[in-house]
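Researcher: We're reviewing a set of sequences before deciding which ones to prioritize for further study. For each one, I'd like a predicted 3D structure that I can look through quickly. This is Receptor-like serine/threonine-protein kinase. If possible, include the structure in token form so it fits the rest of the review sheet.
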Amino acid sequence: MALSRSACAIPQYLSLLVISFLALHQASPSYASDTISPNRSLSGRQNLTSAGGQFVLGFFAPSASSKNYYVGIWYNKISLLTAVWVANREIPVTDTSTSELKISDDGNLVLLDQSKGIIWSTGTRIPSNSTVAVILDDGNLQLRDETNSSQVFWQSFDHPSDTWLPRDKLGLNKATNQLQHLTAWKNKADPAPGIFSLEIDPNGTSQYYIIWNMSQIYWTSGVWNGHIFNLVPEMTKNYIYDFQFVNSSTETYFNYTVKNDSIISRFVLDYATGQIQQLTWMENLKSWMLFWSQPRQQCLVYAICGPFGSCNDISKPFCKCIEGFSVKNQTEWDLGDQSGGCERKTQLNCGRDSSGNSETDDVFFPLSNIKPPDNSQILATVGSDEDCELACLNNCSCTAYSYNATGCFVWHGALLNLQDQYGSDGSTLYLRLAASELQSSRSKKGVVTWIIVGVVVVVVACLAIIQWRRRSRRMIRKSKAVGGTMVPFDYRELQRATNNFSHKLGGGGFGSVFKGSLPDSTVIAVKKLEGLHQGEKQFRTEVSTIGTIQHVNLVRLLGFCSEGSRKLLVYEFMPKGSLDTQLFHSDSTALDWKTRYQIAVGTARGLAYLHEQCRDCIIHCDIKPENIVLDASFVPKVADFGLAKLVGRDFSRVLTTMRGTRGYLAPEWITGVAITAKADVYSYGMMLFEIISGRRNLEQTEGGIAGYFPKLVATRLVADGVESLLDPRLGGEANLEEVERACKLACWCIQDGESCRPTMGQVVQVLEGFLDASMPPIPRSILLAETPEDIRFFYELSSKQSSQSRSNASSSPQTDSTKSNGSGV
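Model: Here's the predicted structure for Receptor-like serine/threonine-protein kinase, in token form for your review sheet.
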């Protein structure tokens, strides 16, 4: 397929998630065969490799320090051993040289331990024992008839572990009433079934559930509406997968395929988070990249932190023990399994001792920033705060209470689903602890249990110190939380973090950016927004929405501040600065072509995500090198996305007054036509020219205008090639095929008519070589432009012509062309 100048209507293909071709990894030592037969077994370091070399079957250890081994299936062409299926999940072997995977006398595939006892078997009834086990290129292990491969007696796809592979079915076999479901590992070193599972509703609806401990549903996909599951709107614009839901008389299932075989992608039910996650392998990073997960908020996972553990969506680790409790099993906790939760440091006394000594009383510790569990019991007859405390204290099973305007609430037994809510205005939860646990604490009534004579004279100083420490602890806590989702900051906190906004990194029409540092030395970038007139609630709502949008090529929003007219955003700091610094500053080392091309690809992926993958299309409206920032590895991240949403659509005045922005504005900005995502495509095309040339498109010199680079590209493409268009600092060191591809694409992006421009999803496809770009037409505004005044004049001219064309088309009986999304790219 190609971008064709004969038709601007370009079909949608893969999305931003499509990654570049993956380098092949050297396969592990293996048999030449992919088959276990009656006279060929598997043991020790022997492996089977699928016919196309995609998957391996053999013995593996979950970690380098593990002494337990399992029979499993893993990817053969990636550099990190990643098991996708495990046979003996609950019973490992310790000696692979004496253990054996073989075909038994009854035709089943069995695993024998060092004592030759069967510890795992396919366990199916087989009419004949002439069977073989074959590992396939889709990751499926089949036990089938040796002479008739279509007669399959058992397959691993019917018994998945924690990973859901392409073409694998998740659903219900109505004939056998067998569910195909995912079950998370216990922890990263133990593939035994954990407490989280994903399965179809056994009651017959088309929705899928994630379930805690086979009892508590905490996420649902919603029902299948014929196209998507109605609570998973991200499926609507997905160009990487084909989805299929089947409901017949014999089975109900859902499966998917990957549209491009070069992509290694999987879904996994994660043991640590309880989320279903979509992961794609990034060979250049040697790691799996998370692109999608549900539930979106970590703390919505039921009992994720176990009894008396508190969850925090904005911190890592996201679980901690509440006051008076410590981790119950530190080893499992460190391995990612927090389900055991926390246990008391000191057991409750539950009443007075025989001498009536009040030292043995239990006390209550206030937790003011905790969202209480839901399973409370209300005491309707209790009418005061004091009576509520007493009612809980007199019941040995009562572990906490809370009193507010709606009544007295008490909790019995273990507390589950506690959640940190910093800065919340909710009611206080009072936690029951042994008196000895808080030797110098006060009850909430202000009754002093222990008073040291002499503390009175320094009470004011102590209060000041406590207040200072409280602020300090709060800032440290927020410092640790920036690895998570969103943190609300106070203005004074950011003022201190930025040394009173003294180190300015840059600025533009939306505000200025300052460098800062949190107490744990985490470096941040703080943007002071200007010209916003929203109310507190609206601002917080929209920032929270933006904060949930995450992608490897979008800069992360870590937090915000909203105090009256003071509106600030806190971003992760990018050590390589913005793209304009790397391209245009004379004292910067020239980026090599490979890095530039990857910056172009990554930026396109980020924009495609905003346009095509978010619940609502987000138009950036200000794409330029200054808004593309680079991390330490020169991975590009689109900055300031969502600010268009914050300040509203009517901000052309802001944009046109920003330095350098005029050269990136699409014609429709100036002519007043409604703005669509294609305005970002135009800006991206103008920026792509600058990535190629290493200079501004319109350069001013002492002698006047040096030239207009887009015009030069358009004419050179037609005439004598692209070699001379490349940044001279590169010395000709570049992939000329990629240079030509980028030049053609940039010309397509800046077409006068927005319908003739590609989508950002198509831009990604062209750059990655999955979609060809034919020779573009030369835009009229580019062909005739020499100065900014010329550009604006031809913008307005083309707009009038376009308006006239639309007017003529609307009165014409011939309207077939309007069914496409444009004409003649």
